[in-house]
Design brief:
The protein is an all-alpha fold. The protein has a single domain, classed as Four Helix Bundle (Hemerythrin (Met), subunit A). 49% of the residues lie in helices and 0% in strands. The chain contains five helices and no strands. The chain has helices at 28-45, 50-53, 64-83, 109-128, 151-177. The protein is globular, with a radius of gyration of 18 Å.
Length: 182
Amino acid sequence: MSPETTGIFGDGTPLPEPPPDTPPDPVGLPAAYLDYYRDTVLRKLDGLSEAELRRSRLPSGWTPLELLWHLACVERRWFRWGFTAEPVEDPWADQDADGRRHVPDGMTTERVVERFRAQCARSREIVASAAPTDRAAVGGRFATEEEAPTLAWILLHVLQEYARHAGHLDIVRELADGEVGE
């Protein structure tokens, strides 16, 4: 096997394959991976009981449902409020005054999943309507053109956030019921 197809230690472990049908263009590739990780997060939560979704198994105290709510807010912050400068009510809705993540009182799991899916759908629309070199609009998250990142930068930033949190959910899921991620 060539170094491109083996693990970092040369032990013959195959490297992860890209999501199927990934386009080679500079927006299509990260957008396809972002969709892959959006689905991965939902798969990792699928099968957990309501109690496990709302239970923390980590010293930091966050729960799997809080993480999903956080990712819905990340989508809204970076694509709607950030890139398009859409006015959004409470862009930091996933955090309390102390910066701790939380799901709003009374919000059901179904509603969190629905909001997550809706935010992802809106983000896809935004990405499809712009070029990777387009800069975020001024007036939402960004006050000046100099600080406004490109769409390509935002895509990669959000992608790395998903990849990191998918790994967190791997650990939580294994602790909850022994399921191990792929």
